[in-house]
């Protein structure tokens, strides 16, 4: 009874590093700091790393201090391989597949021991199974990323780089890695080669690329991040990280359907006057909003908002340069989307059940806007002669007016239909299966789809590519020069071509019809090596959950 009383209020932190020396040492220092501040510590090594530490440092190194104990969990690594932890991809794969259940068993054992009950988990940033364990046990979880802040910011851009088609790489030669990436806040002038090196792969199944994408996805689910740096050293980077990672937590604090999400995409530009009209329209709507403002959104100038705008909206606005858009649209706090009507955001808003106010900029955005407003009944259009009063009225209507309620009902209905389409046996599921089995696997050679290197096109094709590779063993050919070479047909009449793909390929259904097939070939391919044109079999499907 005395022991229970003594330990009842003692905080107990379970610390688990990634099993590599450069990760173990910083975690050990952090654990000692927590111990010094009154925490009971259980420091968890994987079995392989535990044996290695015993061998190199001796038994006394792991004897611990009072209320500082060491524990182990299996890691799935072969005991016979003395250099197993040097194979980083295998190690990452092993911890992901092996460690969750043993770690949960350890937590349960600790709660039944004479130690204080576990009160929190501090895990390495690339040991996200610990996040799942914390959720299972209802414990607060903190991630310790042992990278620099700029390194972590680079990793947070992996998904964005993938969606924009920069990774997997199309070309590792011809200076491709010198490409400047100018849209990452806090990383001015950064080149593709300057990002953490795991993007340097042409294989969409690359273990490390997908491992890091997976680990970054865990960040919004934790209570806090720890970085081994200081403010003055990486201030701009820390500010950018805080803005990106904080937007989901900011939404978490908002009421359901209360926030307007504002994003005009990666290409749209506005004048300074138009930016001001949007700003004051949002101010006057009195609605909370999350606004993605690219540094280059204003033609020939920086995106500067009036100081009084920031002051008037500081309690109900968040302004950042990038966010995980699909997560934002699927967040329960988001009730409407002010958009340029590009197809990616349009189909993502439909799949998320979010109504829209449209301000189309160019190309088929006008067509998407028309269908959103008239055919699908989920949107309203702002006039090209942009006025703040119209922005205010439409935002208010979308977020609570009678028409807005009807738009929300239709958006919810379309979301349900989108989910049915991608579910097992749904139209999109069957069409993708038909495409793979009936077309792509019938070709004699590896094939590729020609595309234009514009982020809206490349993003969708990149996801299509990932989906195909996930279902087949085929790899696509990414030669130099910024285009994908592809073939159509087979045998002696096969066409090999290099060209561009119109956005309609990703968004519309085509019938098995010679005329439409000819139009697609004529519009898409710029360099036919064969004089004949074959009928093409084209099927439609949704990539929202592909």
From TrEMBL:
One of its GO terms (molecular function) is quercetin 3-O-glucosyltransferase activity. Gene3D superfamilies: Glycogen Phosphorylase B. PANTHER family: GLUCOSYL/GLUCURONOSYL TRANSFERASES, GLYCOSYLTRANSFERASE. It comes from Buddleja alternifolia. Pfam families: Glyco_transf_N, UDPGT. The keyword Glycosyltransferase applies. This is Glycosyltransferase N-terminal domain-containing protein. Keywords: Glycosyltransferase, Transferase.
């Amino acid at each position: 009874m005395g022991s229970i009383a003594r330990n009842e209020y003692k905080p107990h932190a379970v610390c688990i590093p990634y099993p590599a020396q450069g990760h173990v040492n910083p975690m050990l220092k952090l654990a000692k700091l927590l111990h010094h501040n009154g925490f009971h510590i259980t420091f968890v090594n994987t079995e392989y790393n535990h044996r290695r530490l015993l061998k190199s440092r001796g038994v006394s190194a792991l004897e611990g201090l009072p209320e500082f104990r060491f524990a182990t969990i299996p890691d799935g690594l072969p005991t016979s391989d003395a250099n197993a932890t040097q194979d980083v991809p295998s190690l990452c794969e092993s911890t992901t597949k092996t460690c969750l259940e043993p770690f949960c068993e350890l937590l349960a054992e600790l709660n039944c021991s004479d130690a204080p009950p576990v009160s929190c988990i501090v895990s390495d940033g690339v040991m996200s199974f610990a996040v799942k364990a914390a959720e299972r046990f209802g414990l607060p979880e903190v991630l310790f990323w042992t990278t620099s802040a700029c390194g972590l910011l680079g990793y947070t851009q992996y998904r964005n780089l993938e969606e924009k088609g920069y990774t997997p790489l199309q070309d590792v030669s011809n200076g491709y890695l010198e490409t400047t990436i100018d849209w990452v806040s806090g990383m001015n002038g950064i080149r593709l080669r300057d990002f953490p090196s795991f993007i340097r792969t042409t294989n969409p199944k690359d273990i490390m690329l997908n491992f890091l994408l997976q680990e970054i996805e865990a960040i919004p689910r934790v209570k806090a991040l720890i970085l081994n740096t200081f403010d003055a050293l990486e201030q701009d980077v820390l500010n950018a990280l805080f803005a990106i990672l904080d937007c989901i937590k900011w939404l978490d604090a908002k009421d359901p359907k209360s926030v307007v999400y504002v994003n005009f995409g990666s290409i749209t530009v506005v004048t300074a006057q138009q930016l001001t009209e949007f700003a004051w329209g949002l101010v006057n709507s009195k609605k909370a909003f999350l606004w993605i403002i690219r540094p280059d959104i204003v033609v020939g100038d920086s995106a500067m908002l009036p100081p009084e705008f920031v002051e008037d909206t500081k309690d109900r606005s968040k302004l950042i340069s990038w966010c995980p858009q699909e997560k934002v649209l699927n967040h329960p706090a988001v009730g409407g989307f002010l958009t340029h009507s590009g197809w990616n955001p349009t189909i993502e808003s439909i799949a998320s059940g979010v109504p829209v106010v449209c301000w189309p900029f160019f190309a088929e955005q006008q067509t998407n806007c028309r269908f959103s407003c008239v055919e699908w009944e989920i949107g309203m259009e702002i006039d090209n002669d942009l006025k703040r009063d119209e922005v205010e009225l439409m935002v208010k209507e979308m977020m609570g007016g009678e028409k807005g309620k009807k738009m929300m009902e239709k958006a919810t209905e379309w979301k349900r239909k989108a989910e049915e389409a991608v579910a097992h046996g749904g139209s999109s599921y069957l069409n993708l299966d038909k495409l793979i089995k009936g077309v792509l696997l019938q070709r004699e050679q590896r094939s590729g789809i020609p595309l234009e290197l514009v982020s809206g096109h490349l993003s969708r094709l990149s996801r299509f590519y990932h989906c195909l590779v996930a279902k087949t063993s085929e790899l696509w050919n990414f030669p130099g020069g910024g285009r994908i070479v592809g073939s159509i047909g087979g045998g002696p009449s096969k066409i090999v071509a290099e060209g561009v793909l119109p956005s309609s390929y990703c968004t519309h259904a085509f019938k098995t019809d010679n005329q439409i097939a000819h139009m697609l070939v004529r519009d898409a391919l710029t360099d036919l090596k064969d004089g004949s044109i074959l009928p093409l079999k084209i099927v439609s499907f949704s990539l929202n959950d592909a």
